[in-house]
Amino acid sequence: MEKRNYRDDNARRRPFRQEKSEKIEMIFGLRPILEALHAGKVLERIFLQKGQRNSITQDITELAHQAKVPVATVPVEKLDTLTRKNHQGAVAFLSAITYMPLDNIVADIYEKGKTPLLLILDRITDVRNFGSIARNAECMGVDAIVIPNRGAAQINGDALKTSAGALNIIPVCRETNLKDTITFLQQSGMQIVACTEKAEQNLTEKIDFTGPTAILMGSEEDGISPEYLKKADVRVKIPMAGQIGSLNVSVASGIVLFEVLRQRLAANQ
C-alpha cells in the first residue's frame, strides 16, 4: 500500500514542548552514558557490548531500567557500525522528545473534565509509519500515545519530520509492560478497543466511542499481540471493498480515529 501522506505544511500548531533539532545526538563510552543517566538526560536507547560486564555496565543497566530506557546487548560489530570512535563497548542515543508519565497524563485528562482518548501502539517499528500515526493522532484529538519500552520505532529525525510537528505536541508515554498498562487503563475507566482484521465486528457497527477509550493498533508484520487482544474489551475491523485484504497501519489508524472523532462531534451537537 502507498505510505505517502498528503501534507498541509501551513497547518498551525500549538506548542507543547520545545522543538529540537532533527539530528539526534549520540553518546559513546561507559562513563559518559552513566553520567547522562545520573543527570536525568532522556535517552532513546542504549547499546552495550555483549560479554562486557563490570560495575559501570551494571550501574548503567540499573539506572536505565529505572528510567524505562531500553538496553540491548549487541556484538561489537554492531557498535562499530554506529560509530567509528572509541566507544568502549557502549553507545546511546539522546531522545528527540521527552517521554511523559502515563499516570500523570490520565489524571490530568480527568481533572480537566475531558473524555480520554489514548492510542496504544504495539510494536510499530517503522519510523515513518510512527510519524504518520502521530500526525493522525494529533489531528484527531488523541490525548497521548502509548508505546512499549522495547520493540518500538526509534523516535528520530525521520519520525519527527513525518509527524509534521505532532511529536512536539502530543505526549508520548513509554511503558515497560503493555499488558499491565492496559489493565491500568481499564481500571481507570477506559474501554480498550483493538483494531484487527481478525475481528468479526465492523468499526461502524454499534461501537460507542463517546466514552473514555484507548485504541490499540498492532505491528506492521503480525498485528496485535495475542495476549493484548485477549485483554481488549472490543475488537473491530475496518470494512473494505477492494481485493487487498489489509491497510497500512498509519492509514488504518487515521480511519479508526476519524470514526471516534465523528461520533464525539455528533454527540456534542
TrEMBL record:
Native source species: Adhaeribacter swui
GO MF entry, a single one: RNA methyltransferase activity
One term under GO cellular component: cytosol
Gene Ontology biological-process entries: methylation; RNA processing
Coiled-coil boundaries: none
Keyword Methyltransferase: yes
CDD domains: SpoU-like_RlmB (cd18103)
Protein's name according to its UniProt entry: 23S rRNA (Guanosine(2251)-2'-O)-methyltransferase RlmB
Keyword Methyltransferase among UniProt keywords: yes
SMART domains found in the cross-reference section: SpoU_sub_bind
Gene3D superfamilies, A to Z: 3.30.1330.30, 3.40.1280.10
Domain RNA 2-O ribose methyltransferase substrate binding: 26-100
Keywords from the UniProt entry: Methyltransferase, Transferase
